[in-house]
């Protein structure tokens, strides 16, 4: 089941000698930091931990099935939200120096990747009592993830390489061509989805993965340029709710055996997931921009703290979950269930990230 595991967005930093990407021009000139991107990143981080925290609890028929299916249908939005946010931040400023951009961005990816890979090998070898053969070390050196959730960092390497061209594509689109792009992207995902609904061994989910994940960056770069009107807000809320309900009942219909985890409709590149992710992203931006930051300073500080250390939470939460899941390491916690595992994983990963950030050599690996 862990082959579906995931991810986080790399907290973006601006290229050298350029303004911050996560602040609009008005915020840059006034010295203020925009709250909306922090809210999106914090929510996506919580959904990511929730997704992995639910993985051990395979949906089974009975009262608990509906709760697990409902939460999983929400948690699946984490990866699309991270990619949309990356596109939203990276596409808003021209890249003045291509070499400086690549040095900065690849540095921001490789240090966390190396840190998490070494940690993953240590945890597997000693914490989980695995005996890693030489072949596995060769696979890791060739670019295979050392732990199930590290594939996203590897994905970001080619996406970063393509960012300058994706940025030009997003900037060149007119509203009409952008709508054509959205329809083409959505329709291209229908065929693989239907093939998997009819046959669980249909077209592999990775068939359009590279193009699909890159499309999220382009879409993110085009969204959020203006606030939602009342009618647009209502439409987004209805779309979000209807897709959520359809995914829950559709998953129940496709689940044919007790204890089976039927994820056909919950993959990140399903057309309805793409649509729900886009409206969720727009809703979170809307809420973040309208939120009274001055009235709720503690809440906003907590959101920004999770956002700041989202990379560290991503890197560490899988290891924390393995600890709380293990009857040998923590017998009391192992049977507690996701309601306890998920908050513990978030708080523990955040605390460890804050401690690691105090080490000068590893600060950039978790922030």
What best-fitting shape do the alpha-carbon axes yield? Answer: globular
The residue ranges in which pLDDT falls below 50 over 5 or more consecutive positions are: 1-31
Helix-strand category: mainly alpha
Computed Rg = 20 Å
Let me know the largest β-sheet: none
Order of helices and strands: HHHHHHHHHHHHHHHHH
Please state roughly what percent of the residues sit in beta strands, choosing from under 5%, 5-15%, 15-25%, 25-35%, 35-45% or over 45%: under 5%
Output the number of helix runs: 17
Mean pLDDT: 81
Count the E strands: 0
Amino-to-carboxy terminus distance: 29 Å
Q: How much helix is in the residues?
A: 55-70%
Ordered list of secondary-structure elements with their pairings:
Elements (H helix, E strand, L loop, with lengths): L24 H6 L5 H19 L8 H13 L2 H13 L7 H30 L6 H8 L9 H22 L2 H14 L1 H9 L10 H14 L7 H25 L16 H20 L6 H12 L1 H16 L5 H4 L3 H19 L6 H4 L1
Helix pairs in contact: 2-3, 2-4, 2-12, 2-13, 2-14, 2-16, 3-11, 4-10, 4-12, 5-7, 5-14, 7-10, 11-12, 14-16
List keywords for this structure.
367 residues; mainly alpha; 68% helix; globular; disordered N terminus
């Amino acid at each position: 089941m862990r082959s579906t595991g995931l991810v986080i967005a790399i907290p973006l930093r601006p290229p050298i000698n350029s303004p911050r990407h996560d602040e609009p021009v008005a915020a840059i000139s006034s010295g203020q930091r925009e709250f909306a991107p922090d809210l999106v990143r914090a929510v996506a981080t919580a959904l990511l931990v929730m997704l992995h925290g639910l993985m051990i609890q395979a949906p089974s028929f009975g009262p608990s099935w509906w709760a697990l299916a409902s939460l999983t249908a929400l948690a699946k939005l984490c990866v699309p939200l991270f990619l949309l946010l990356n596109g939203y931040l990276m596409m808003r400023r021209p890249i003045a120096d291509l070499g400086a951009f690549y040095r900065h961005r690849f540095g921001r990816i490789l240090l966390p990747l190396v840190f998490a890979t070494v940690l993953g090998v240590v945890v597997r070898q000693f914490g989980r009592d695995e005996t890693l053969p030489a072949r596995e070390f060769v696979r890791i050196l060739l670019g295979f993830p050392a732990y199930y959730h590290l594939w996203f960092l590897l994905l970001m390497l080619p996406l970063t390489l393509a960012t300058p061209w994706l940025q030009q594509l997003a900037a060149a689109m007119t509203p009409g061509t952008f709508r054509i792009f959205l329809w083409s992207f959505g329709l291209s995902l229908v065929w693989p989805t239907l093939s998997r609904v009819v046959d669980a061994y249909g077209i592999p989910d990775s068939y359009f993965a590279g193009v699909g994940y890159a499309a999220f960056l382009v879409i993110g770069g085009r969204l959020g340029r203006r606030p939602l009107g009342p009618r647009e807000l209502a439409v987004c809320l209805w779309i979000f709710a209807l897709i959520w309900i359809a995914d829950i009942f559709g998953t129940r219909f496709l689940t044919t055996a007790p204890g089976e985890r039927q994820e056909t409709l919950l993959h990140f590149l399903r057309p309805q997931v793409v649509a729900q992710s886009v409206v969720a992203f727009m809703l979170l931006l809307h809420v973040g921009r309208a939120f009274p930051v001055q009235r709720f300073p503690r809440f906003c500080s907590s959101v920004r703290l999770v956002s700041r250390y989202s990379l560290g939470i991503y890197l560490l939460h899988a290891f924390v979950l393995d600890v709380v899941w293990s009857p040998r390491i923590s017998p009391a916690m192992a049977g507690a269930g996701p309601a306890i595992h998920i908050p513990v994983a978030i708080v523990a990963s955040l605390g460890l990230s804050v401690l690691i950030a105090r080490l000068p050599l590893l600060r950039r690996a978790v922030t």
